Amino acid sequence: MERIRFVTHRDQRILLLDFTNCSAEDVATLSEHVPGVVTSEPLRSVLVVADFTGAEFNRDAVEEIKISTALDRPHIKRAAWVLTGNLPKTLYDSICNFSARNFPVFDTLEEAMDYLAS
Fold first, then answer.
1. Are strands 105-106 and 76-82 parallel, antiparallel or unpaired?
2. What residue ranges of the chain have pLDDT lower than 50?
3. CA 44, 102, 50, 105 torsion-angle sign
């Protein structure tokens, strides 16, 4: 899965979840694979950025994101999302509420990675 990979930014290891320009079906499929990667890492150790630039969402995609973000929560040190207005606020809020997490949103991948590396 080349869309789920670790990268280095400012000497920090960051898990990049590359959802750019994905269909809603691809978002759901990729989201299913995320917990397997994250939960293989130590608790509270993973810096993760999800880049949803140009991605599409439907009910199934949002449900898979909810499940994924809830399952991997104990392993996450800090997370950030890149959104370009393509995910309605009500759906974003439902993901945050379900997973009991907050996801700072950035306009660009560079900004999100800078936040994680700081």
1. parallel
2. none
3. negative
Sheet strands side by side (includes 46-51): 4-9, 12-18, 46-51, 76-82, 105-106
In the Cβ-directed half-sphere of 100, how many Cα atoms lie within 13 Å? Answer: 5
Q: Which residue's structure tokens are 């809020």?
A: 93
Q: Could you read off the pLDDT of 64-85 as tens digits, one per residue?
A: 999 999 999 999 999 999 999 9
Domains, in order of start, for the chain:
4-117 (3.30.750)
**Residue reference for tokens 């439907």:** 58
Which H helix or E strand runs over 117? helix 109-117
DSSP state string for 22-69: --HHHHHHHHHHHHHHHTTSPTT-EEEEEE-TT----HHHHHHHHHHH
Under DSSP, is residue 100 helix (H, G, I), strand (E, B) or coil?
coil
